[in-house]
Design brief:
Layout lengths: L2 E12 L2 E12 L3 E5 L6 H8 L7 E6 L2 E2 L4 H7 E4 L11 H11 L4 H14 L15 H13 L5 E5 L7 H16 L3 E6 L2 H4 L4 E6 L2 E6 L1 H8 L4 E6 L2 H8 L5 E7 L2 E6 L4 H11 L4 E6 L3 H16 L2
Parallel strand pairs: 3-8, 3-9, 6-7, 7-8
Antiparallel strand pairs: 1-2, 1-4, 4-5, 9-10, 11-13, 11-14, 12-13
Helix pairs in contact: 3-5, 4-5, 8-11
Length: 311
């Protein structure tokens, strides 16, 4: 598959603040590419640069073969962009929103009618044409925003935090629509702070403080950044156990996950730490190996980054 997005050391600064710090990646057509990170780490700034809405401070990027710094107007015609706030006109109906965005993309006549019918069927908006956008539940408003972004059949779709504030069922149905677009050969670039959503992506980048700190498919990331065996500890007083475990030299990492703890041990330390737990942690406990999750990787990489920055 040919690359549809190529990014090389892309950087964006606002005064003395670096929002995006020299990131690089390549995305092939038909790929669902995810940017995972907390709010304010550079996800939206990256998308806005790739959509031609922000000029990079340095570095290079090409979208559909077009230079983001020199051909921004041409890029806007070949992409679909859905922002965090959905960019809808709330005082217009579903039909009026679709027609407005269709005209923006240069659609008219039979082509407009065909596109409207296709998107309303795809996103199950049929029957809601005369409903004001402001009266739609958030999940349906999300579908309308996606329809508006897809009217002109773009090669690449940018979705910036598309499921924020949407209930889990609506989020899952929305991802079904995303998969359908990828199956049609379209590239989908999606930002999210939901770890479960990141698992749906073909390729993933974890971003923190404007820099990419983990890269690969979700499975590759787990294997690359968690080569050791991971253990899960269940006990009656997890918080007390957590504070105690952090002081033990055999423990490379201890993280709380609700009422359980995830532990990384030094090689060969399993028997010794079990004995110590029996002597020092009150009540019954269970220590067993588990497969790492993206949450484990995310927390580990953030802790490593904090440790490096503190040196």
């Amino acid at each position: 598959m040919r690359p549809t997005i190529e990014v090389d050391r892309l950087t964006k600064k606002f005064g003395s603040f670096t929002a995006v710090d020299g990131i690089s990646f390549v995305i092939k057509s038909g790929t669902i590419f995810g940017f995972l990170g907390a709010n304010g780490v550079g996800k939206s700034t990256t998308i806005r640069m790739l959509c031609g809405l922000l000029r990079p401070t340095s570095g290079r990027a090409r979208v559909a073969g077009l230079d983001v710094a020199k051909e921004a107007d041409r890029i806007k015609k070949v992409i679909g962009y859905m922002s965090q706030r959905f960019s809808l006109y709330l005082d217009l109906t579903v039909e009026e929103n679709l027609e407005f965005f269709g005209r923006v993309y240069g659609l008219k006549g039979e082509k407009m009618s065909t596109s409207l019918a296709r998107l309303k069927k795809l996103t199950a908006l049929e029957g809601l044409e005369n409903t004001l956008a402001t009266e739609l539940p958030t999940g349906w408003r999300q579908r309308l925003a996606l329809s508006c972004a897809l009217l002109h059949e773009p090669e690449i779709i940018f979705l910036d935090e598309p499921t924020g504030g949407v209930d889990p069922l609506a989020r899952r149905k929305f991802w079904d629509l995303i998969y359908e677009q990828a199956d049609r050969g379209r590239t989908v670039f999606v930002t999210t702070h939901y770890l479960d959503e990141a698992e749906y992506c073909h390729e993933l980048r974890i971003i923190h403080a404007g820099r990419i700190i983990a890269a690969g498919s979700p499975q590759e990331i787990k294997m690359k950044y968690f080569p050791e065996n991971l253990l899960e500890l269940t006990c009656s007083q997890p918080l007390q156990a957590y504070e105690w475990l952090k002081q033990q030299p055999e423990i490379k990492q201890a993280s709380l996950f609700g009422l359980r703890l995830h532990l990384l041990l030094e090689p060969g330390a399993m028997a010794g730490i079990k004995k110590k737990l029996a002597q020092s942690v009150p009540g019954q406990f269970e220590l067993r190996p588990i497969v790492p999750s993206l949450e484990d990787v995310f927390i580990r990489r953030l802790e490593e980054e904090a440790g490096e920055s503190g040196k």
